[in-house]
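Run folding on both entries below.
>entry_1
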Amino acid sequence: MSIKARLDKFSRSIRPTDDHIAEANRQTDYMRDKLHDKVAEDGSFKLVKTLKAGSNAKFTSLLKTEENRFDVDLGAYYSGEGATKQELDKLLRFTRDQLRKIYPSKDKDDFKIGKSAVWVKFRTGIKLNIDVAPIICDDSLDVTNGGWIPRKDSWRLTSITCHNEFVRNRTAQSKDVSGPVKFNRLVRMVKWWNNLQGELRQPSIFCDLITAKAFEEVGVTTEWQSSLLKVFSFFRQHQFLEPIIFSDYYDPSEVDSSDDSKILVMDSVNPENNITWFWTEETRVDYLERIQIAYDAILQARSCELDGEEDEAIDEWCEVFGENFRELSEED
């Protein structure tokens, strides 16, 4: 197989299978329907809607491996009396209790309450994990399905729907370029690389945003080799020294970028949510070192390919995407 064909095969192989996704959707749809019923029966809170969130909803989810979890994220939108940020603990416990009613035969240890969501573990079939996050409805951002979403640092006012559209819109734009490189597939590639970075691994939304900025600035080509080289070259040159901001849902001038010491990768929906709020200068430098390693390997892989040294080129791509690249890029 040519390197071009291998990269295209790899980009398809790191996507969960159609059967896996269909089964995940079936299990999630069942949970959604039953959760509405249980909350309504209890009457303590008002569940307005449940929406699929995260990578599965954005079509950027990854094949389940040791480094890559396959979880489905579900946002449970609550409103009315008691549905406040101050009542988060109650909402989490309440949501957990309703989920246990849906699956009375499951072990209680399969339901875990985290800081921001209830985690439900299924031990059979595709062994799906579903994270159900309580969201407090709030229309103040003037966007579709706005709400307060709990995160490790604090509550964030944002929108699941807008985050999904952010990726889908760019995927549609990328279809203007012929060839296999579409935006959601590019995000998968970046996420796969990111998930190999150990303690420097960043959240999925970070990968969405930095890939979107690269796509905005340098676009994609008709092949993976040059597209990935352009993307990692952009990361390398940008260095996270300038704010990464988008204008889809707010005016970029609303972002407070007066503190030069802050690394800013902003939520595409709320100009007050800095995804890299926890980054230090050391984090930035260390992450850039990993980017440089990947860039150098891509550059060397390209050189080997042009010289007809395909085995050496594959070795270099394994430096970027791990040893799984070798197997996942092989011809069926």
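>entry_2
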Amino acid sequence: MPLRTVKTDLTDALTLEWILHVKNYKLTVDKKRCTGCQICSLGCPKEAIRLDKQPRTAGEKARKAKIDVDLTKCNFCGVCDVLCPYGAIRITLNDKHALPVIEKQSFPELVRDIQVDATKWSPDVEYENVCPLDLIKASWCTPDGKPIENINSLSDEERKELKITIALQKEYCPCCTICESRLPQGVINVRKFVHGKIIVNSEKCPENCRDCLDVCPIDGALYLSDDGRKVRVNEAFCVYCGACKVVCPVVEALELKRTGISHVPLRSGTWNKALERLASPVEVTKELRAKGSERARDSVEKRLGYKVK
């Protein structure tokens, strides 16, 4: 048991600490990056995370749900850190990033497959607004390494000689694929790591309600119908985080089903239980059946002494 526990709730961050003799466990929620989505609260094995819907002020936009973590329940396992699509939660041990569930191999690492080919990035591309979360930065320099601040001041011939460096904050990327759609083909290729289906029930969706649209962190995933009365979904950009569903005033107006989460191979009861809370029962059954088939195949291969194809 910890010698002392500390919980600090500030404007920009929520911090929980376990202070022991030689160890200091800390959980930090970056409130600027937190979108008030469902993922961490559903995945938490201790039910330590709660999302509180914020009251609506007339004439103002809806606000994202506020996250709170119960220090009496949290054991700093790291599940929330692993699952957060936006990298808003971080677990540290003595100020170093630590994920006990990964270290103990009881939880898988998620696969954020993002490929960048800087050779295909053109100096003519406006990259500042490519990412809705501002996670991509491009910098240019001359062949001899001199930084270029104003590309527009160069001639076409000078631009052709430039070298580019692309910095992408992958740990905060929910893989919405918007950057891929806005840039020339092949510059960035993104595969979603959370798969699913989201449906707006037009009959139950309140007219002129924009709550879900107000809190959606991915610009373009939700949009208004032509008459401006109903919300529509562009699933090409949706990351199925659930921030919209948390604030929706009508329970059945939004239907969200996660059908899968890309992760490294792992057999774990902890992961299976988390998946049951996060994904639809049908898809959970498929994954468990696949794991059962793998175990059966491994058993046969051990008996036979060679790989079964």
